[in-house]
Amino acid sequence: MPSSANSVIVLDFETTGLSPNMGDRAIEIGAVKLIDGQVIDTFQQLMNPGFRVSSFIESYTGISNNMLRSAPSCAEVMSEFATFIGDSNMVAHNASFDKRFLDAELDLLGLKYSGQFACSMLIARRLYQEAPTHKLGDLIRYKHIEHDGVFHRALADSEMTAKLWMVILEELSRRGISNPEFTFMQKLSKTSKNALDSLISKHVKLTNK
């Protein structure tokens, strides 16, 4: 059975830097589990990368070395998170970044997942072409989505991304596509901006046959 775009896990990592290939590690994971568009569970955990993080990362994320000192190891947290994911599809804002870290952390443990990724940032770029930027915080303000002002903490960012994701699905519903499949969202994220309207009208025709 095709999986619906409104039953996903929305996740966000805070990390020691930009690239696991350069030795960077995850220091916090936050995730929201949506089933039929409702939040049914969340996951949030700091994790100790085994080395000190830079003062830039401390001030950017608000996660201090002191906080990480007593946190469980990446291995402990990520094996728990793999269970939380199960076989769900996943959404992240700038998903290539989060997927890179998820893959790297799970590879170290010899763990795999069967779900796929969709990127809310790429989709927002297509649907909200007139937005000032497509950074998460700017889109939240642009779409007047309620938030508590906390940014760059994993659970807060994944909760906001989940709200943005539901706003995106509402937008598609207004355009005649209600409850799209996850694969349609992936397709949408790869469609050129100019081809967006024709993709949507073609999909509406197909589903209304």
How many domains is the backbone divided into?
1
The biggest beta sheet, please? 5 strands, mixed
Low-confidence stretches: none
DSSP helix fraction: 40-55%
What is the architecture at the second tier of CATH? 2-Layer Sandwich
Helices and strands, with pairings:
Blueprint: E1 9-15, E2 26-35, E3 38-46, H1 55-61, H2 65-69, H3 74-85, E4 90-92, H4 95-108, E5 117-119, H5 120-127, H6 136-142, H7 154-174, H8 182-190, H9 196-207
Parallel strand pairs: 1-4, 4-5
Antiparallel strand pairs: 1-2, 2-3
Helix pairs in contact: 3-4, 5-7, 5-8
Quick tags:
9 helices; five-stranded mixed sheet; 5 strands; globular; 209 residues; alpha/beta; Nucleotidyltransferase, domain 5
Task: Describe the overall structure.
The protein is an alpha/beta fold and 209 residues long. The protein has a single domain, classed as Ribonuclease H-like superfamily/Ribonuclease H (Nucleotidyltransferase, domain 5), CATH 3.30.420.10. The chain has nine helices and five strands; from the N terminus they run βββαααβαβααααα. The chain has a five-stranded mixed β-sheet with strand order 3-2-1-4-5, with helices on both faces. β4, α4 and β5 form a beta-alpha-beta unit. α3 packs across α4, α5 runs parallel beside α7 and α5 packs across α8. The longest helix is centred in the last third of the chain and has 21 residues. It is globular, with a radius of gyration of 18 Å. It starts with 8 loop residues before the first strand and ends with a helix. The relative contact order is 0.17. The mean pLDDT is 95.
